[in-house]
């Protein structure tokens, strides 16, 4: 199989697997136990926490592990709305956010919270003037994804955070697709990330919180994670996350240069019939979201089962509905259903990429010949 679905998940790095193995096998103690083995596990988790915080690269805050980025986003949004002063009952976000943000906002709307869903341009980007017009003294939280999971465009998160702060609101960014790939700018008060997007294990994410911006706990119990999140932490998963974060930091420049090379290779192979979805400039180049007139993208995937690529978000791939992100940038249902997402990264070889894209292109041409 040729794996080109890096936005859905990434392979666990060998270095990460090696770091986790002792904590899966002989070092199985509960990290919250006062025993010597428990204290050893707790110390290892704290090392991992520091590794993640250093990779995030923001000052003046702390990081808490969660079971996923979805949990982190739910916690950030619901927990913030629980603690804001009376009169601040508005969330401002974008129509292109991940379902973890949009569905949480919809849930809060049913409980009386006002949510403003801002449109994006054809390039997938928010207009700063529209953000500024929507954010006022009633706003509690502004949420904007740093790198879009479907089309890869990079929102001006630093500028958006400044607008939020000017109105006394907090700013949350979903940095799941950005962490370890592009720098996280200064400004956000809350940053959600995930391990399995950076060659770490599944089942663990986290929330970085600027001091004073910590949301009210979402999960209650023993308060194991800094009194903010209850539940027994997995040393293996936390240590895997830390190892993946450290590796991503060490390899950031190397990985970024390699992504640029793969991006250039991909466009060299693709023909002029393929059109890029989203901004051609303000984007992460490991995400290639493209469309072709008349293409049946679902059929294309079915015909090329030994190549892993996607229609868009893995979280919504089974819905049967056109991508809400592609619709938000102005594509028709037909154009959205003619779009595919190709994701590549550290372990993608140029030979694999060229072979896969040539086969994708040939299969698309075969559809055209059959339709004619």
List the defining traits of the structure above:
single chain, 372 residues, alpha/beta, Aspartate Aminotransferase, domain 1, Aspartate Aminotransferase, domain 2, 2 domains, seven-stranded mixed β-sheet, three-stranded antiparallel β-sheet, 11 helices, 40% helix
Descriptive notes:
40% of the residues lie in helices and 15% in strands. With 372 residues, the protein is an alpha/beta fold. It folds into 2 domains: 2-8 and 251-371, Aspartate Aminotransferase, domain 1, CATH 3.90.1150; 14-247, Aspartate Aminotransferase, domain 2, CATH 3.40.640. The strands form 3 sheets. The protein has a 7-stranded mixed beta sheet with strand order 2-8-7-6-5-3-4, sandwiched between helices. A 3-stranded antiparallel beta sheet has the order 9-10-12, with no helix packed on it. Helix 2 packs parallel to helix 7 (235-269). The chain starts with a strand and ends with a helix. The model has no long low-confidence stretch (mean pLDDT 95).
